Amino acid sequence: MTDERDPLTTLEGCNRILILGRTGSGKTTLARELAAGLGVPHVELDSLYFGPDFSTAPLDLLRERTTAAIAGERWVTDGNKRVVRDLVWPRADTVVWLDYGVHVSLWRLAKRARARTSSLSAQAAESGRRSGLPKQMLAAARGVLKALRSHRGQRREYPRLFAQPANQHLAVARLRSPAATREWVTRVTSGR
C-alpha cells in the first residue's frame, strides 16, 4: 500500500470498499450497513449473479453487470466471486476481510436455511403449490460445504493475494469476530 490509509481506524480516503469473507460470514449484511452509514451505493455481487430460483447469469452478462455496477467513484460491494475479481479488485481501494472462525459461518448458514425453509413452507401452504424445499435444502448443504472448504483456503490465499504488486493499492482491514466488526462499524461510521 503506497499511502497511509488505515481502514481499521478510519475510512477517510476509502471510497470503493470490498467486503470479503467465507459463505455465511455476513458480507452482504455488513456491506449494506456500511454503505448506508457512509451514504454510498451498495453493490451486491450475488444479486448480479443469481436470478429467480437460484438461476445464474451467464459469465459475459455477470461481467457486464459487474463492470457497470462498480463504475462509480464511491461504493461498498461484497463477494468472493473469482470470475469478476479482475474487475473488482483493481477498482477497489479498500478490503474489509471478515476472517471469522468457521463456526460463525456454519451457525449463520443454519439460521439462514431455517428462515428460508420456513418462508418457502408458508408460501407453499398459502398457494397450494410445491414449496421448493428440496432446492432450498440442496442450496443450504452446498453453502455449508463451501464454508468448510473455503475456511483454510481463504486464510492462505488472501494474504498472498494482498501481497502481490497488483494489489498493493488495497488498504486491508482484517476483522476476526462479529464483536470486533460491530465495534469497527461504530467507530468508522460515527459522525457521518
Q: Which labels suit this protein?
A:
single chain, 192 residues, 7 helices, five-stranded parallel sheet, alpha/beta, 5 strands
Could you characterize the architecture of this molecule?
Helix 5 packs antiparallel against helix 6 (133-163). The longest helix has 31 residues, at 133-163. The protein is 54% helix and 12% strand. The protein is built from seven helices and five strands.
Percent range for helical residues? 40-55%
State the end-to-end CA separation.
Answer: 25 Å
Largest sheet: 5 strands, parallel
Spatial order of the strands in the main sheet?
A: 2-3-1-4-5
Low-confidence stretches: none
Mean pLDDT: 82
Number of strands: 5
Strand content: 5-15%
Topology:
Layout: E1 16-21, H1 27-38, E2 42-44, H2 45-49, H3 59-69, E3 75-78, H4 85-91, E4 94-98, H5 102-127, H6 133-163, E5 171-175, H7 178-189
Parallel strand pairs: 1-3, 1-4, 2-3, 4-5
Helix pairs in contact: 5-6
What's this model, at a glance?
The chain has 192 residues and is α/β, with parallel strands linked by helices. The protein is built from 7 helices and 5 strands; from the N terminus they run E-H-E-H-H-E-H-E-H-H-E-H. The chain is globular, with a radius of gyration of 18 Å.
